[in-house]
Amino acid sequence: MTSYPAAETYTKSRALAAWVAECARLTNPDRIVWCDGSEAERRRLTDEAVAAGVLIPLNHEKRPGCYLHRSNPNDVARTEEVTFICSPTKDGAGVTNNWMAPDEAYAKLGALLKGSMAGRTMYVIPYVMGPLGSPFAKVGVEITDSIYVVLSMRIMTRMGRAALEMLGDSDHFNRGLHCTLDLDPKKRFICHFPQDNTIWSVGSGYGGNALLSKKCFALRIASTLGRKEGWLAEHMLIVGIQNPAGQTRYIAAAFPSACGKTNLAMLTPPAALKGWKVFTVGDDIAWLRIGPDGGLWAINPEAGYFGVAPGTSAKSNANAMRLVEHDTLFTNVAQTPDGDIWWEGMDSAPPAGLLDWQGRPWTPESGAKAAHPNSRFTAPMSNNPVLSPHANDPRGVPISAIVFGGRRATTMPLVLESFDWTHGVFMGATMGSETTAAAAGKVGVVRRDPMAMLPFCGYNIGEYLGHWLELAGRLKNPPRIFMVNWFRKSAEGDFLWPGFGDNLRVLKWMLDRIHNGADGFRTPVGIAPHAKDLDLTGLEISPEQLRQALAVDRGEWRQELASAGEFFDKIGTALPEALRRQHRTLAAALE
Ligand code: SAT
Ligand code: MN
């Protein structure tokens, strides 16, 4: 009989002690380690990870405190087809989620978990989502056998003793059980039990599958909590924009994975827009609540960024390049002979003697990418040179505008404002985007991705959209809703809009609309800026190119609405009637 440390020395929560004991009985680890979040612990675990070959130390003169992790080549992205919402009924999960009956899921994963940590260490990771002391904040505990997960959770969440203090003797915490198993894709399942505030994940070590705080808790489970408790958990960055007069306004923006959320959240203003500054509150997830003023207030529940590496450069995101200068974990990037990192789109030619993401010698003639297209950096937000002074504010920040955006080569103009809240919810609900490398499967196929939550909504999508609509009734001061598309292309296949820092020009128009009555004109599908309404100071873009970027083409929109209509039909009776009405009205307006 193995003896484990007494849980009572770590926690006053009898529910937590009992659950840890239960997981230990199931998985039978050799050791249990309760993580305290200390610096000494980080050093000890890092040394162990290096000794085990899980982490490769990088050149600490060039990149102090940085390590490289190479994952199993079969385990490099989220796996949506084996991600399940195990609500009591299939209808509870809705048409956009895979569903498994809770009993079946517990039995199936239970069989895989039985004895799965024999010979291994079980880590107990208590963590807080949200600023400490915030009424928004929630406690989760992840149990895992992966040291990479522990070290990542330490960056991504407020982890350790502070979480146990916040939990106290309560039994109210998210229970996340994760086991790597042997990484056989046939034994890979990510199961959510919203009714039990529980997540079981097996067979993957990849970020969104294994860092259970992130998509699993802060989006899928939290969205169900938000519905019950009257708030929203969203796949949104939060960015603060300070004008030359020193006023800061906040925008929350939803984009699918790998569509530039981190870049927008850390944007460097174009030199010609003098006096404008941008600050990051969050780059991936927002928890939004109605504040005492009747407005919508947001926190970022996370404490770090898990960003896509390829394409990140001094030009596309100078702040991110500084973010990852130290104390960063890199996953599946290429390694240079002097122990630094490299990826495609870094703006420097690949140095000779590279090792690719699998550790194999690489040359430009290799015919494959050196860094995996979904390779990542995991860095603490405290590294961010433009971190908002309110990133740790327990009250969060007040949101002036909500933005929905996808990656679309056609149809979607650079920007549109919605006519009102319901129309804005319709815009979000009918969003489409081309698939990216962040999820396993084909890249570049347009799919409906309502509010960028398709893979992350923890309950019936129809009810979720209803929850969005209902919120308006309780908001005295609702944010305005916009949609954007940075990715529209010309007939020749070139991007029409420069993107990156210049996106501030679009955000500026939004804030000018809200606060300064800036002009725009009504199209059948939303309010658009004239070219003159955008601040184009110092930007070289031809009037024709801008016209194409802003254009609303009725033919394309009729197709778009047809596709949105099919999606609505799929949702069926769960879809709020108000959204169907929006669809009919727009269809008529386009005739
Ligand atoms: O799912 S992850 O959090 O690993 C990254 C993403 O797809 O957004
Ligand atoms: Mn994301």
Characteristics:
591 residues; alpha/beta; Phosphoenolpyruvate Carboxykinase, domain 1; Phosphoenolpyruvate Carboxykinase, domain 3; 9-stranded mixed beta sheet; 29% helix; globular; binds sulfoacetic acid; binds manganese (II) ion
Description:
With 591 residues, this protein is α/β, with parallel strands linked by helices. It has 3 domains: 7-34 and 81-229, Phosphoenolpyruvate Carboxykinase, domain 1 (3-Layer(aba) Sandwich); 233-300 and 391-590, Phosphoenolpyruvate Carboxykinase, domain 3 (Alpha-Beta Complex); 306-383, Phosphoenolpyruvate Carboxykinase, domain 2 (Beta Complex), CATH 2.170.8.10. Strands 1, 4, 5, 6, 7, 8, 9, 10 and 11 form a 9-stranded mixed sheet that branches. A hairpin with a 5-residue loop joins strand 16 (286-290) and strand 17. Helix 2 (39-51) packs antiparallel against helix 5 and helix 11 packs antiparallel against helix 12 (461-474). The structure holds sulfoacetic acid and manganese (II) ion. The site of manganese (II) ion has 3 residues, from loops.
Main structural class: alpha/beta
Q: Helical proportion?
A: 25-40%
The total tally of domains equals 3
CATH class of the largest domain: Alpha Beta
Task: Report the sheet-strand fraction.
Answer: 15-25%
Bound molecules: sulfoacetic acid, manganese (II) ion
CATH topology of the largest domain: Phosphoenolpyruvate Carboxykinase, domain 3
Stretches where pLDDT falls below 50 for ≥5 residues? none
User: Which second-level CATH architecture of the largest domain applies?
Assistant: Alpha-Beta Complex
Oligomer: single chain
Number of helices: 16
Round the mean pLDDT to the nearest integer and report it.
97
N-C termini distance: 75 Å
Shape label: globular
Main sheet properties: 9 strands, mixed
Rounded to an integer, what's the Rg over CA atoms?
23 Å
Number of strands: 31
